[in-house]
Q: What sequence folds into this?
């Protein structure tokens, strides 16, 4: 991984409304995205970020932050992302296991939110604190009454109450945060495009920091990710015509911030050659080859 400036990487992609962002762990994620015509306020308070009426993102290009670009191939397509990682020794957050009041959110992205009360949901995540920010006095009282217990404990009534009230969700990592202001969809309902969050207890119980398909280098923990626009999908994830400029742009990210061996396999396939079988030595290599072959098919229409 031999990229340029981490700050430039963050700034350039925050300036692109087609780029989406996520922050969280396996089973609990907050996502930020914006429409090109949506009102946006630029954050310049020592953090790099944006705020819209639906959500906000604020990041710091700390010296420990390590971007890692990768693709994963699957039947019929591929995905792409740049994971924003920290060394394992530098990523740990509070790891609270019960609902906990934290006090006013003095670091909120918007000034008007800094008097609202932050509650840690107590999900016990290693590198992320998943929180709620509440201004309504009645909901604050209800959360205080439920504090000290796991949110997903049997009989705890706070879950349905939170879905109905839809307070702000605020996910925190060592180098930044994503805030979500949109309504929480009902159980089984799909999230609307744009800022949203999801918490899936079945996945949380696995205790993973990321999906097993992501080739994150040993010793690094992904806390967030940037998601440049996909060359063959629209913003809703539906198949679209192949965009060569987007494909080239992500290729440059792989060259700058990716795994050199996986990127070399990709390059071989895109050039029309077959990889040396001796180099196809694991699941991540096979996934990179599948992704590149899917890209060749997409280029052909």
A:
């Amino acid at each position: 991984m031999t990229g340029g400036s981490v700050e430039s990487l963050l700034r350039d992609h925050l300036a692109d409304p087609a780029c989406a962002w996520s922050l969280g762990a396996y089973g609990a994620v907050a996502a930020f995205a914006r429409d090109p015509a949506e009102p946006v306020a630029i954050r310049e308070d020592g953090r790099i970020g944006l705020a819209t009426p639906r959500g906000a993102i604020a990041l710091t290009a700390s010296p420990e932050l390590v971007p890692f670009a990768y693709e994963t191939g699957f039947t019929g397509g591929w995905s792409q992302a740049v994971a924003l990682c920290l060394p394992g020794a530098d990523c740990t957050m509070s790891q609270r296991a019960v609902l906990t009041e934290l006090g006013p959110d003095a670091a909120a992205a918007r000034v008007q939110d800094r008097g609202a009360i932050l509650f840690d949901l107590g999900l016990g995540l290693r590198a992320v604190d998943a929180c709620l920010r509440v201004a309504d006095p009645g909901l604050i009282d209800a959360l205080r009454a439920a504090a000290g217990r796991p949110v997903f404990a049997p009989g705890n009534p706070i879950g349905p109450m939170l879905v109905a009230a839809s307070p702000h969700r605020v996910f925190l990592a060592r180098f930044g945060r994503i805030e979500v202001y949109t309504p929480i969809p009902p159980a089984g309902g799909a999230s609307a495009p744009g800022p949203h969050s999801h918490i899936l207890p079945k996945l949380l119980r696995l205790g993973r920091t990321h999906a097993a398909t992501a080739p994150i280098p040993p010793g690094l923990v992904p806390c967030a990710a940037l998601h440049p626009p996909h060359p063959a999908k629209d913003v809703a994830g539906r198949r679209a015509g192949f965009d060569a400029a987007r494909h080239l742009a992500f290729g440059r990210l792989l060259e700058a911030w990716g795994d050199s061996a996986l990127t070399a396999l990709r390059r071989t396939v895109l050039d029309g050659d077959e990889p040396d079988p001796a180099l196809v030595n694991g699941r991540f290599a096979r996934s990179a080859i599948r992704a590149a072959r899917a890209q060749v098919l997409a280029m052909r229409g």
Q: What stands out?
A: The radius of gyration is 20 Å. The mean pLDDT is 93. The chain has seven helices and 14 strands. The first strand starts at residue 20 and ends at 25.
